[in-house]
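F.,

This is the one I mentioned.
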């Protein structure tokens, strides 16, 4: 039988290696892992239980530094209460379940809200593999709109391949392009629709590397740039002035034989920052908002957390 910590470390490793990936899924996976851990550990006292779950939360938080969905999910699950061990256990499990449910509902709702902006005959460009951006695209298509999608490969991990397979499965006409072809096709595009790893207090977007260059091309071509982001992708830390850490991944992801070269190094940031002025709208589960409203979303949705952090 696997021990609870071994199982949790296994999930953490699958998140780190990107076997489990995509900001929303990472958050849900972390919530689920914490729940499983809390339900299966043996603890002699509430204090011991608290210490063990805090340790487990730390392990999960250290897997992917950028995705705020992960830290928000962990924080929400860790708000458990209980005067005794069993009450604490079930409160934590309840928090995890309601986070997962909230996340799934949000993705669906964003699909409905965002799809209203997509018109019959539109061409949509998407980058990487965002379940939330795809929810908008699929909802528009399912409502009978004749749409076409252009998907980037998204080097170095090629998440674009996941995107085109999903689109193909749904029967949506799709064209795959290399990342550097975005400028060439942008004049055919009606909307760029991308997901989000983080939305900052000033409405800027942290998303898969290459997003910022796509936003620049869209801005120059006067193409609408839409972000699909649940409210738990908004970062409370950025209100407190903190910068979003950008995850640097291994050189081998870009060039597997790098160790054979003596004078070359690889720089492999996983994400980049798109300034809010290039974003037309952020579709959240509470509405389609201008990026400038992000501060209010954080205050409204995650305000309680901010208060607690200040204590
Ligand atoms: P959903 C991904 O990160 C991409 O940056 C994508 O845009 C973002 O998560 C959001 O994905 P990675 O895990 O939450 O591939 O919309 O590094 O599914």
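My design for it:
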């Amino acid at each position: 039988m696997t021990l609870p910590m071994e199982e949790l470390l296994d999930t953490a490793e699958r998140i780190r290696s990107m076997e489990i990936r995509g900001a929303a899924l990472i958050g849900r996976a972390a919530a689920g892992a914490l729940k499983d851990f809390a339900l299966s550990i043996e603890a002699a006292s509430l204090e011991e239980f608290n210490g063990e779950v805090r340790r487990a939360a730390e392990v999960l938080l250290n897997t992917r530094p950028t995705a705020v969905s992960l830290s928000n999910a962990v924080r929400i699950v860790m708000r458990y209460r209980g005067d005794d061990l069993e009450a604490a256990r079930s409160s934590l499990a309840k928090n995890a379940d309601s986070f997962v449910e909230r996340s799934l509902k949000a993705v669906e709702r964003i699909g409905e809200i965002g799809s209203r902006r997509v018109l019959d005959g539109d061409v949509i460009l998407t980058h990487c593999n965002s379940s939330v951006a795809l929810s908008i695209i699929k909802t528009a298509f399912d409502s009978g709109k004749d749409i076409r999608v252009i998907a980037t490969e998204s080097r170095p991990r090629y998440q674009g391949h996941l995107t085109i397979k999903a689109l193909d499965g749904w029967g949506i006409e799709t064209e795959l392009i290399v990342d550097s072809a975005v400028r060439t096709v942008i004049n055919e595009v009606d909307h760029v629709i991308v997901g989000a790893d983080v939305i900052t207090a000033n409405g800027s977007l942290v998303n898969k590397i290459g997003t910022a260059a796509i936003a620049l091309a869209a801005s120059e071509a006067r193409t609408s740039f839409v972000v699909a982001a649940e409210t738990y992708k908004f970062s409370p830390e950025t209100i407190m002035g903190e910068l979003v850490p950008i995850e640097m991944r291994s050189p081998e992801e870009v060039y597997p034989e790098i160790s054979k070269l003596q004078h070359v190094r690889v720089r492999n940031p996983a994400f980049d920052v798109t300034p809010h002025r290039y974003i037309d709208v952020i579709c959240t589960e509470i509405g389609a908002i201008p990026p400038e409203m992000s501060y209010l979303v954080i205050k409204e949705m995650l305000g309680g957390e901010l208060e607690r952090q200040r204590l």
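The mean pLDDT is 95.

Talk soon.
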